[in-house]
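Researcher: Next entry in the queue.
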Amino acid sequence: MYKFIVVDDERLIRKGILKKIEKLDLEIELAGEAENGEEAIELIEKVKPHIILTDMRMPLMDGKALLKKLQQDYPEIKIIVISGYSDFEYLQEAISANVVDYILKPFNKEEIYKSFTKAINSIDKELSATKKLEQIETEFDINYLSDLITSCQTVYDSGYFKSTKIKTLKNFHSFLLLSIYSPEKSSKDIYENMLTFSNFAENCVLIPGSSKINLCFVLYAFNNESNGEISAFVKKQGIEIYEHLKSLSFSNMYLSFSSITADLSLINNCYLESLEALNKRDVRDNFYILIYDNYEISPVESDWDKIDTLVFFIEAGNERKVLELINEFFNTLENISPLTLVTIKYNCLTVFRSIRNMLKDHYDILKKYSFTNDYEAILNNNFDYNKIKSSSIQMLSRLTSMFKDKNVYPSEELIENIKKYIKKNYSNDINLEKISSLFFLNPSYLSFLFKEKTGENLIDFVNKVRIEKAKELLKTTDYKIYKIAKMLGFDNDKYFFRVFKKLSGYTPEKYRIMEQVK
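Model: Structure for this entry, 518 residues:
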């Protein structure tokens, strides 16, 4: 509804004008009447009209003075001039004051209807433009906040804020961040469903996450509330949001609140705290609302000892064995208690590093497949055990398939394949039984076959490879000899000394001295 006032010094004329206006089928309502410009200004301050109908000839403050005052102090108000005088002076004044319409007395219903319609259309057009500008500014501010949260934007400046609502944030004294995570929903899905949440307080801003993460954020601002009041609010709000999303078929989600900060420029810290709270969660617990606390939690190392076997079968392109081993790895993890995401991600990264080291020997595959970046992103941006497990299986299966096409270990070159494996993995625990299991051979047969084809025992070949590497390290580094022995897979220093002297004719110390004086 649009409010209007009528300004004319003759009461009967005002009544006549209003009588005609009453018959108009428009969303307008009378907000008051004034006899002159001074009364009009007082009335404007009180009722805040959208439209003014004014005469030009009035006592005290006439129409010309009123138009100047309105143009100066109230440029948003739409003015319709009604005058009994058609001289050029008044018309010129009306044009210079951006008057919507200028009509002469007496006027008919059609004329006043046309004038009001012009005024309403002008108001609607300006409101639409203002609303659009506010929407653009709000989107700009929310994107800026989103970048601040996830550290894509590292420079905080409250002067960047453009929209009315976001500008008010700098007036608040403390802030906290809620991160909403769902492994089944995208950031956009979470954000759009959160837009329908009706119990948002005025002191919060809903912020979408990037397309790379299944997260949405709510930034809360507080002024004089105590920590206890904020804590009670957080718990209540968390339950309400959880129930809201659950009603919208969110079967799997986690809400994580950061601690309170007094500085909006530290909002990235709040983000990291909310992620830490998610990572500390025991995946067996049904806690869906998490609140950050600053206690440290260390990962538990798995006792699964088949990482190098998994790496071999990936490189060999054996999809069946890779699937079998990765499932065995996760089954071993599931025996750990408590099973936090910190522990899961730590052990996954341990496996990942070994695979990454192997990939360095295969530049063509490394170039085609961004395994390094993709897998780290999976671990960093996922907070659900089943999602991490399924994504790991999917990625390793894809990688294994690429190696299958590469055919690193062709079946017709069995002994050469074994020698290639030993040269690549000399620092690992290598023995006859392990090599046999990797290449699906009986240990006795492998021992016989290797000696027949190469003229030496398998373990002698392993030692020869290791000692050649030892010579290289003794010449090019100042590592302690016991460290070199360990790096090469020798658990026993004395055994390393004995093998080195047997194959080189010198002790490791003597060999190093000889090479240094050359």
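Model: The radius of gyration is 39 Å.
Researcher: Noted, moving on.
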